């Protein structure tokens, strides 16, 4: 079933020749719709991502701290987070809609659950990776448990913690596109619209490319913050 | 090395120092849960304040266990450990640990802290103000002979030997009355290790801490210890004695084997040349009347005249035969000074030197390079005998000047 060009084109303002011929990518159309479509969509995309990663971070951190002290609890968390992670995202969105409706809450619940496993696994690895010698020295010098955690274990786990956040963030940026089904926000909206409505490629390509660029930018930001947070890893060896 | 500077730095703070503590092990046993036998079995000994006690023994004999019991990283199964008479069990573990300098077997510097922050760990926990911490860090870098610019570096930028020094500085930071040092020079090449040992002894002369020092190297134990506790598998303390006693009278076959068949030679490392009663040097200055000088030469084991300058530093030698033919001490055609030994050498070094020099008497120089005395091969080998004529008195460690 071939769509007739022009007939089902999105009717945004005047159509340029590129749009009329359904060119692969129409710059003029893109820049025309930057401020009403793509700009706001990026903003929403980012907000949805940050909320999901932030909530996921808090839950995963709490769980990993418990798991660090109580290995059997860690096994339990692992089972739960793995289960949640393996549910296909579309299915999970659909499952949640009856309970929480077509809302941002639904989207965030689903998005957050996908961050848990990867962050939890990385955080636990990071904490367990702190060398026993260093911990022994810390204990022997009279650091309390809390001081050991705050001054030694968490700082030394930063590389693993940031690694977990990076994977979670990039994953969520991808999933927010799908979340547009239940929550009409983010770069998923133009993508879904393009898929459903037309064979017009510009909208689809623009949103997809922007999602990728967003993921890169946020990832670069995270790499940068790790660099700032871990001056000891920057130093050259003797 | 900045020996003078650090000595001054330490001396400057001497009055503020915490006095060293006496450490008592009283029937101490430790059984780890699930282990077949005890890791430490009814161990008793006392380390007087300001002394170095070396725990030595094969791997797994309970040395680290003994240390960790002191600062309550693990709990006693039996017996008691007292610091200045007070049981450690009555103490809050965290407070106790901050009062005990602890150098762990694997150094364990915080990789994410600068050297300065590593050293400042305990002072920060104790809430010292910034100025005081800064001054203390600078002082300690000097004490362990590290350049001040190291303060801003991270541990991985330092060599193994430098890291060991930081570990020691970190343990010393809050001026603890007791130091526990678990193989502090373990993973280090022999040359650096030897130097760190010497520096450590120099430092200990100044700070006079009570120190428990673990090693599994008997030579290190003999060099470092005022007292040596020899342990064997199963956590038994086999002998607790001074190095000289252990070398002279090993308690049993195990100790005898552990100290080695060369223990007589090792005993020579306990004494230095200036501990011997040296014969006077037959010395004279150029132009002195040869007659009376010749008589002194004839009476000396050396059989040669040592020509010295105004300060007493040797310039050369003149054989007895030639001297007899001269009327004055000659200033030309002197034989070279040849082999000499500083008086701080151990008897073992002295003996080795004499034996490579054809067993001739050895001219010993004092620290200023002046001819101080003559030592014979008989004297040196006499010291090998456990009950030889010069009683094996061990000089008060660290005070060679006094006994010289
Ligand atoms: N936490 C522990 N749980 C159970 N057994 C232990 C524990 N720590 C040490 N042991 C056992 O206790 C004994 C003494 O160990 P310890 O570490 O004190 O020996 P060590 O003399 O320090 O040895 P090394 O020279 O190898 O450092 C060993 O048999 C060891 O296996
Ligand atoms: Mg050990």
How is this structure best summarized?
The complex is a heterodimer of chains A (238) and B (404). With 238 residues, chain A is mostly helical. In chain A, 78% of the residues lie in helices and 0% in strands.
Structure explained in plain terms:
The complex is a heterodimer of chains A (238) and B (404). With 238 residues, chain A is mostly helical. Chain A has helices spanning 17-20, 27-32, 34-69, 71-86, 89-100, 104-128, 132-140, 145-179, 188-197, 201-229, 231-234. Chain A has a single domain, classed as MetI-like (MetI-like fold, Orthogonal Bundle). In chain A, helix 9 runs antiparallel to helix 10. Chain A is elongated, with a radius of gyration of 22 Å. Chain A starts with 16 loop residues before the first helix and ends with a helix. In chain A, 39% of the residues are buried. Chain B is α/β, with parallel strands linked by helices. Helix content of chain B is 35%, strand content 20%. Chain B has two domains: 3-267, Rossmann fold, CATH 3.40.50; 273-382, CBS-domain (Roll). Residues 388-404 of chain B have low confidence and may be disordered. In chain B, strand 15 and strand 16 form a beta hairpin. The longest helix of chain B has 18 residues, at 190-207. In chain B, the strands form four sheets. Chain B has a six-stranded mixed sheet, with helices on both faces. Chain B has a four-stranded antiparallel sheet with strand order 2-1-4-5, covered by helices on one side. In chain B, strands 11-12-13 form a three-stranded mixed sheet. Chain B is elongated and about 85 Å long. Chains A and B meet through helix 7 and helix 8 of A and helix 3 and helix 5 of B. Bound molecules: adenosine-5'-triphosphate and magnesium ion. Magnesium ion binds next to helix 2 of chain B. Residues 63-64, 105, 182 of chain B line the site of magnesium ion.
What's the structural blueprint in terms of helices and strands?
The complex is a heterodimer of chains A (238) and B (404).
Chain A: H1 17-20, H2 27-32, H3 34-69, H4 71-86, H5 89-100, H6 104-128, H7 132-140, H8 145-179, H9 188-197, H10 201-229, H11 231-234
Helix pairs in contact in A: 3-4, 3-6, 3-8, 3-10, 4-6, 5-6, 6-8, 7-8, 8-9, 8-10, 9-10
Chain B: H1 3-12, E1 23-30, E2 40-47, E3 52-56, H2 63-70, E4 78-83, E5 86-87, H3 93-98, E6 100-103, H4 115-119, H5 121-125, H6 130-143, H7 160-172, E7 178-182, H8 190-207, E8 210-215, H9 218-224, E9 227-232, E10 236-241, H10 243-248, H11 253-259, H12 263-267, E11 283-284, H13 290-299, E12 304-308, E13 314-319, H14 320-325, E14 340-342, H15 347-356, E15 362-365, E16 371-375, H16 377-382, H17 400-403
Parallel strand pairs in B: 3-8, 3-9, 6-7, 7-8, 11-12, 14-15
Antiparallel strand pairs in B: 1-2, 1-4, 4-5, 9-10, 12-13, 15-16
The complex binds adenosine-5'-triphosphate and magnesium ion.
